[in-house]
Write a structure and sequence with these properties.
By secondary structure, this protein is of the alpha/beta class. The protein has 14 helices and 17 strands. The protein has two domains: about 160 residues, Rossmann fold (3-Layer(aba) Sandwich), CATH 3.40.50; about 300 residues, Dihydrodipicolinate Reductase, domain 2 (2-Layer Sandwich). α5 packs parallel to α6 and α10 runs parallel beside α13. Bound molecules: 6-O-phosphono-beta-D-glucopyranose.
Length: about 525
């Protein structure tokens, strides 16, 4: 009999997730925004669900001197403010005594030795070895000294060769172009082995993004249609209502292509377009993602080519006047940083040749919505045709990633009556109606997965590099052009005209989800 393939924890329910070894999570950048908004609430909610190991410790690390007690208060208040579930003092009472803080510089080897000592003391106090999970949630300028000091202090190599070896989660941005991503990967490899590294893209932790794999591969009806013979085009939208706001300092150095397109929308594209993996496990899935990313053709950067960029101008958001990007705090008056980008991609493989993939993302757009829309080819108009006066739409399958998570399919239907008249209708499945709305946050899933050593929902080094390869020429061209070619769109609209032109040349239009 053939060997039974190893089943992914996802397929085993949560049983494996309950098996995390004793763990100490060390957060670098402990007083940062992400720590308060996402990481500490994630740990708290894992505790509510009984998914943290009995011996679980949380250590904040940062440059600021913060006494343990004060760090606990910060963590407590962060849960109160940001957790999806109300703070229970009972649950917090289990985490609080195991929450501590170590102050130190990121380039201070002696401070890392102190951290190592701190972890050794935790082990001594419980009489067991613990797994260390480092979470690097700092500005990227200090990624390198942190990594090097984890190596120099011996922390990176701790228990290597055993299941509870040290692991590291690295927050985005993972480099700012191909050269810097290669350099960062090189530094990581000097210190960690690839299987210890968890590069985060929080979109992969979203329920609906995981569901995309289930929908594609647990249903037999999609795969036969999932190719150039039946699909006309694919649109991936990650639209935000928020503007740059108070994040001008960061955003000005980043821009939409780096902040959203290169990572989040490309992950959505990879999961949509990849070949079926041979197994539901990290390497098999990541191999397929890299393969499809490698098949993306170089972009045409000329006028009327494959890319569009824009900044929001003053407009109306939710009935209120909203400032333009150039008026936001921390944005240079002549800023050449885009708040919107649209891309037309071609994937040159057997499955997708000739099917355009359109990606767009922007701040201050009409609605917050992330979706993947698969537009099918129209049927031949032998019986029903628009030219014959029938109201028809192309069949569109859309995965609504957020908000109002779900799936819908547009079908053409007969309007009841004695005449034959048609109308497109939408068949929808909504998570909230079927399953209720208390879905785990992406960071809960990702922290837990890293703790049990499952890299399926993380990005491998070559994956990040392949994606940067696609976009680095665009970034270089935009940097050289400055503001020349920068379009604008009113805050609260669906984006600039130049993005419409990108689709018009294929006879397509953007959806208004
Ligand atoms: C982050 C970007 O990665 O994703 C932000 O840096 C953006 O600019 C955020 O607002 C969007 O995430 P979500 O989960 O709210 O869609």
């Amino acid at each position: 009999m053939a060997d039974t393939p190893q089943r992914h924890p996802f397929l085993q329910g949560l049983s494996k997730h309950r098996g995390a070894p004793p763990t100490v999570v060390i957060i670098f950048g402990a007083s940062g925004d992400l720590t308060a908004r996402k990481l500490i609430p994630a740990v708290y909610n894992l505790s509510v669900d009984g998914l943290l190991p009995a011996d679980f410790y949380l250590v904040g690390y940062g440059r600021k001197e913060i006494p343990d007690e004060e760090f606990r208060t910060l963590a407590h208040d962060a849960i109160k403010e940001f957790s999806r579930r109300e703070l229970s003092e009972d649950v917090w009472g289990r985490i609080a005594p195991h929450t501590t803080y170590v102050a130190g510089g990121y380039d201070d080897k002696a401070a890392f030795d102190r951290l190592a000592q701190h972890i050794a003391e935790i082990e001594k106090s419980i009489g067991r070895e613990v797994q260390t999970l480092f979470y690097i949630s700092t500005p990227p300028s200090v990624f390198e000294p942190i990594l090097l000091n984890l190596g120099a202090s011996g922390l990176a190599g701790k228990y290597l060769g055993q299941a509870h070896h040290a692991k590291v989660i690295i927050e985005k941005p993972f480099g700012r172009d191909l050269t810097s991503a290669l350099a960062l990967n090189a530094t990581i490899r000097r210190v960690f082995e690839e299987h210890q590294v968890y590069r985060i893209d929080h979109y992969l932790g979203k329920e609906t993004v995981q569901d995309l794999l289930v929908q594609r591969f647990a249903n037999a009806i999609f795969e036969p249609l999932w190719n150039r013979n039946f699909i006309d085009s694919v649109q991936i939208t990650v639209a935000e209502e928020v503007g740059v706001g108070t994040r001008g300092g960061y955003y000005e150095q980043s821009g939409c292509l780096r902040d959203m397109i290169q990572n989040h929308t490309m992950q959505l594209l990879a999961l949509t377009a990849m070949e079926p993996p041979v197994a539901y496990e990290a390497e098999a899935i990541r191999d397929e993602k890299v393969k499809v990313l490698k098949a993306i053709q170089p972009l045409d950067l000329g006028a009327g080519g494959d890319v569009a960029r824009a900044q929001y101008a003053a407009g109306m958001m939710a009935g209120k006047a909203a400032p333009g990007n150039l008026q936001e705090q921390g944005i240079a008056p002549q800023s050449a940083t885009e708040t919107y980008a649209a891309i037309r991609l071609s994937i040159n493989n057997w499955r997708w040749q000739g099917v355009p993939f359109y990606l767009r993302s922007g701040k201050c757009m009409a609605r917050r919505v992330s979706e993947i829309a698969i537009n099918f080819k129209r049927p031949p108009g032998t019986l029903f045709a628009e030219s014959g006066g029938f109201n028809l739409a192309a069949n569109t399958l859309s995965f609504q990633i957020q908000p109002d998570e779900g799936l819908s399919l547009i079908l053409n239907t007969k309007i009841p009556g004695l005449e034959t008249r048609t109308q497109p209708v939408k068949m929808s499945f909504r998570y909230s109606t079927t399953f209720g709305s208390n879905t785990p946050e992406a960071y809960e899933r990702l922290v837990l997965d890293a703790m049990i050593g499952d890299g399926t929902l993380f990005i491998r080094g070559d994956e990040a590099e392949t994606s940067w390869k696609v976009y680095t020429p665009v970034l270089d061209a935009w940097a050289a052009a400055g503001r020349t070619g920068m379009d604008s769109y009113a805050a609260g609209s669906w984006g600039p005209l130049s993005a419409d032109a990108l689709l018009a040349k294929d006879g397509n239009v953007w959806r208004q989800p």
